[in-house]
Specification:
Strand order of the largest sheet: 2-1-5-6
Strand content: 15-25%
Number of domains: 2
Low-confidence stretches: 138-145
Order of helices and strands: HHHHEEEEHEEHH
Shape: elongated
Mean pLDDT: 77
Largest sheet: 4 strands, antiparallel
């Protein structure tokens, strides 16, 4: 049996996820993430095309409606649909990188880093309704912990009038416009989880319509 179009899109998503795991997070991450979201979203589009070629299209339509309900109940699926809509229609502004820390007065400080606003050799941060920037080499390290901590701490030291002294506690990815976050440690596993759900959809389709697929 020939590989289905939707299966090819799944392999495309796996390709981008592999590179997402290995890439320099500051310089390349948002491009691979955008490509991963697009490929994942295309899986169900391709699956609908496969279904339109089946002899019993009505059965497929009924099955697919139930499958949409299943996927719609999964938080990661909703999240990635939103990711795809944003990256395709607005640009790669999500996810944001959020730093949380404590200033010298023990007040909580939150700084969001929009990677899409980064220029070559420049870091830009959103802080207290202002955009601040400073030149750094942000493409030289593959270690996200080292890169983010060293560069942000350096920025804090050179722009004390805007930020002041701050102790970094943790950083997260902001994944939607409502401010929902996930930890950097959860980011790749969340991508993997969504891909698993799409593979489940693909497997359910093949099990349900195996005889008709063989005739395609």
């Amino acid at each position: 049996m020939n590989r289905l179009w939707a299966e090819d899109k799944l392999q495309e998503a796996e390709f981008f996820l592999k590179h997402l795991k290995l890439c320099n997070p500051v310089n390349e991450m948002r491009y691979y993430f955008s490509a991963f979201c697009s490929a994942c979203r295309s899986v169900t589009f391709a699956l609908q095309k496969e279904g339109s070629n089946l002899l019993d299209k009505q059965s497929f339509d009924e099955w697919y409606k139930n499958e949409q309900i299943r996927l719609g109940a999964i938080p990661t699926a909703k999240m990635f649909v939103n990711f795809r809509n944003v990256t395709q229609k607005e640009g790669n502004r999500l996810p944001l990188l959020r730093f949380e820390g404590i200033d010298e007065n023990e007040n909580q400080v939150i700084i969001d880093w929009d990677l899409s606003k980064q220029e070559d050799g420049m870091v830009k941060l959103e802080f207290d309704n202002r955009t601040i920037s400073q030149g750094f080499d942000v493409t030289s390290s593959d270690e996200i912990e080292t890169l983010l901590m060293v560069e942000l701490e350096a920025m804090i030291q050179v722009i004390p009038e805007l930020i002041g002294k701050m102790e970094l506690k943790k950083y997260k990815w902001v994944i939607d416009d409502k401010g929902q976050t996930i930890s950097t440690e959860e980011f790749i596993p969340t991508c993997e989880s969504y891909l698993i759900e799409l593979k489940t959809t693909m497997r359910n389709f093949k099990n349900r319509f195996e005889n008709q697929i063989l005739k395609l």
